[in-house]
Amino acid sequence: MSAMPDLPPDVGVLRMDHVAVAVRDLRAGAALFGGALGGRFLFGGDSDDQGIRIAQFALPGGMKIELITPLHDDAPVARFLARRGEGVHHLTLLVEDVEVAVARLTGLDYEVVDVDLASRHWREAFVRPRTAFGTLLQLADTTIRWDEPATSAITLDDVLAGRVVFSDDERAVLRTD
């Protein structure tokens, strides 16, 4: 493998942030990961642009699980569930700089797609499973601490009832409409 000029020798992975699990019933997933397994609810809400509702939990020992469920039948996660059923959807790796990671991986012939640099708070890209040994990898850099509860004013019940949405600055907020 030849050296790539002006790029680091790796993609700058800081740590694995979470494992995302696609579920049909968010309440049932929360019962397992947030109840039976002792997970602590961190945050959640609806991403209307992606058509998903999420809830994230910190398990004892620090591992994070993100449950994702579709809000409508034509959401990408709905198609995933129809094709593959419930289970691991993606792994999220936090990197120093997602643009550098994309350049490095693309230069090494990995297929990187859905690069989104629009928000300074959460920039992301995905490595397709066909070039990542069957695993969808999400690479992200962020200015937000995602390992602490966003606010005590938002509860898991609020998320399950659809009362929470992610704002333009990636914060979970109560819906106003």
From TrEMBL:
InterPro entries: Glyas_Bleomycin-R_OHBP_Dase (IPR029068), MMCE/EMCE_epimerase (IPR051785), VOC_core (IPR037523). The keyword Glycoprotein does not apply. Pfam families: Glyoxalase_4. Residues 15-142 form the VOC domain. Keywords: Metal-binding. Signal peptide: none annotated. This is VOC domain-containing protein. The lineage of its organism: Bacteria, Bacillati, Actinomycetota, Actinomycetes, Pseudonocardiales.
